[in-house]
Amino acid sequence: MRKIEELTWGVTLAAAQTEGAYNKDGKGLSIWDTFTEKKYKIKDGSNAKIATDFYHRYKEDIDIAVAIGLKIFRFSIAWSRILPDGVGEINAKGVDFYNKVIDYCLEKDIEPWITTYHWDLPQKLQDKGGWVNRDIVEAYKKYVTILRDHFSDRVKNWIIINEGIVCIGGGYFLGVHAPGKRGIRNFSAATHHLLLAQATGFKVLKQVDNLCVGTAVSCTKIEPFSKSKKDVKAAKRIDALMNRLFIEPHLGMGYPESDLPLVKRIQKYVKDGDMDQMKTDFDFWGIQTYTREVIRAAWYIPYLGAMQVKPKNRNVATSIMGWETYTKGISYFLKRFANYDHNKSLWLTECGMALAKNEDEEKRIEYYTEIIDEMKLALNDNVNLKGILLWTLVDNFEWAEGYVPKFGIVSLNHKTLERKLKKTAIWLTTYLSNVKL
């Protein structure tokens, strides 16, 4: 049985939320560059044109991570920095930037992990339909091939796509994230094509020996509001949507149609051989969980017949995001994924707590203390947990929420771009220095 002291700690970043330099050195526009230009889409009216300026300050951020004692530096590649049009000619300056990030990580003895896609589709591909257009699968394959050919000699751990349900649900169903599309047809087509792309990307990377390739899935603990049959069935539908739809097709289980009838609509986009092509034996699963949702039946809600009972109406503590702060999902989902395959390696590839500006940092320390306890519970059940990657290092652009939520363990002065360790970072430095004794 692995002990808590043996877990590896690291941090996760995403290109669209940190890099800035949105049009520098040949980078093309992404869907988030254009989405933030629209009125009323971002809570504070902000954008990520500068963000944390990781593009120019990557050494500083890597140095901070190393000083804290973190051993893994997970970052994502901006597709449009490598291929400004999404396909076609490679931008050499973009490749050079990521080479510098990788090489500096290795110089500082912190392991680089790459996420190939963290929501920032090139706008040129979105102009052709984005994830709704089946051609995206071939475009993604060519893109990942480029990443493999340039970076796999030094980067051994790869995450294919980050949180498919959030990316597609927010961007192609609800319209609250880029590219702002809505409707069940967009959602159905985009879901199928993203899953096909993910399976394809895995196969491309596994053509290189000794690469460890997984994916990162969003997991939300779902519970019924009452024991009534209607509420229980409604919760089961939402669980299938949130926690099974982007997982079980890769396991050869198909789409969860029996518990979530709306996904029968996806069959319109399924071609012969697709479901076999989708089967993927990932080297690891990356689990990302932040909150819990309580669900009640609501016949008037289209497609789902369910609605969330908001945390404030349940008198539970929430973060600035309005999410219930719920750490018990850690052990729950680690055990749930272990039930799929007990030998499969599991990572917590994201977890974190959003605070408001000037909010008590002790809350975040308490949160991570509870996370450690949850990991211990999972380890006591012999779950094959390898480590944890925090969300995130520096306060950054949190998508439609702008810069309002503060997830970082390091603060950012937006005028000077100065970084400053928060109490959590200091606490974590002490913890990591002691836990190895």
Secondary-structure blueprint:
Elements: E1 8-12, H1 15-18, H2 31-35, H3 54-68, E2 72-76, H4 79-82, H5 92-107, E3 111-117, H6 123-126, H7 135-151, E4 157-162, H8 164-172, H9 184-205, E5 212-224, H10 229-243, H11 274-278, E6 284-297, E7 306-309, H12 329-340, E8 345-350, H13 362-380, E9 385-390, E10 410-412, E11 419-421, H14 423-435
Parallel strand pairs: 1-2, 1-9, 2-3, 3-4, 4-5, 5-6, 6-8, 8-9
Antiparallel strand pairs: 6-7, 10-11
What does this structure look like?
- The chain is an alpha/beta fold.
- It has 14 helices and eleven strands.
- It has helices at residues 15-18, 31-35, 54-68, 79-82, 92-107, 123-126, 135-151, 164-172, 184-205, 229-243, 274-278, 329-340, 362-380, 423-435, and strands spanning 8-12, 72-76, 111-117, 157-162, 212-224, 284-297, 306-309, 345-350, 385-390, 410-412, 419-421.
- The strands form two sheets. The protein has an eight-stranded parallel barrel with strand order 1-2-3-4-5-6-8-9, surrounded by six helices.
- The longest helix has 22 residues, at 184-205.
